[in-house]
Structures are given as C-alpha cells and as structure tokens.
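[Primary structure, fold]
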Amino acid sequence: MPAVQSVSLVGGTWLTADAGSALFDGKPGRRSRISRTGALSINIVLAEAIVPGIVAVLGLNVPPGVQVSAAGATATTTRLPDGSVAAWLFPQAGGPTSSIAVQIDTLVANVEVGEVAIFRAVDVGITDGWAVAPIDTSMHTRTKGGQVNTVAGATYRRLTATMSARATEVVRKGGLAGADWETVAQAMAGRQRACLVPQYRDMRTKAFDPVLAARAALYGYATQLPSAENVSRQYFTGYLEFEEIPA
C-alpha cells in the first residue's frame, strides 16, 4: 500500500485526536471515531497513483449488510470469523488513481473504523494443500489441583501455501502484470502491510465470487516471504507464510 498523503471527511467530523491517521497505522484494533453528520465519505489521497485491486475497510462498528463503495466497486459489510465487521471491495477495472473516496452508507451516529487498506493486486497460483489455521493467543495455566486458569487473548489466522509451478517468464521476467515473484516478495518485506486472498472463485462456474473472496481474505504481513525454488529447468515453485492482524 502506498503512503497516504492526506485524509479528509465529507459528512462527518473526527471524534478522535488522530484525525484519521489511525486508519493507516497497520493496527485494525486501534480505531478512528467519526461523528456522522450526513452521507459519510472518507477521502484519501495517496502519495502515488496505483490501480487499486483490493480495498479493505476493517474494524467497523456498523452492522453486517451496510453498503460500502470505493474505486468503482461496491460491497456490503460482513462479519468475520473473529466477530469483527469488515467490507472487502475488489475493483475489477480502472486506471491509475491517487484519490480514493470510501463511502459508508450507514445511519450509525458515531462510526468507528479500524483500518482502510488500498492495494495493488496480482494473481499468483497456489497448489492444493494450502491451509488457514486459527491461532489462539490465550494463556492457559494449571493450578496444583489440575484446574485451568485462562487469560483470554485474541485469535488470528495463519495462511501457509505452496505456489504453483511457473515458468521463468513469470518468476523472473515480470509475467505478473509487470511484477515478477521477487518483486512481489520485496513489496511484502519488512512487515509491509499486505493482503492475501487464497480462495475467490466459484467452484462450478470458476467466476469471481466477491462474497467468498471477502470471507477468505487476510490482512496482515508475511512471516515467510514467497520463495522461488527451481523444480525443473525453467520452472519454479515457492512457499509462503502469512499472518493476519486481527481487528
């Protein structure tokens, strides 16, 4: 995600002193609060123009089913497995832009938003056998009598996947819309914010399924960057690990 140059509101005023900076700090659990005065729009100016492929609005306090629009795409909020509410939008076409307005169609008086994430997107195949595991950070200790005391902690998801074998043209020569495997890996380095969507196609029609994509999407950072491992002459595979940042 490019750096954010400025953020402003239409139809609302900031209630928190961060004035919207918490929307882009990589911590969906830290929320910006907005007093809604009309049709709410969060106007974002990025430091560079991109073709947005994914727009995520995380950590919302609005109910599921609320319409959210941005970059020419529209979706409704959904409740994620951890109980938080989010909207995942997947713009399908459009040119480069540095100005994006996130519109939230709600009647909630005081709106809370944990994170707004805007990403470029590339399509990288993964093989069968990928896994998404829930990780529980709760601490359990036993008393002398064998009873269990628990300090409840947050849960998050961890994705592990092996990348499908691809030719040198994809891995080394910019076959992913001008960004090869190593370029994508470097963009995720240093715990840069990223998003992985391991499942997004209808099983029968193979068409893009935005509801399935929203349910499967993970926002977080790579704990193991995608590798490029030679398997046969000009063909490569790879492995990656990715952990969610919970809201």
Observations:
- The chain is about 5% helix and 50% strand.
- Helices lie at 168-171, 181-187, 210-216.
- The longest helix spans residues 181-187.
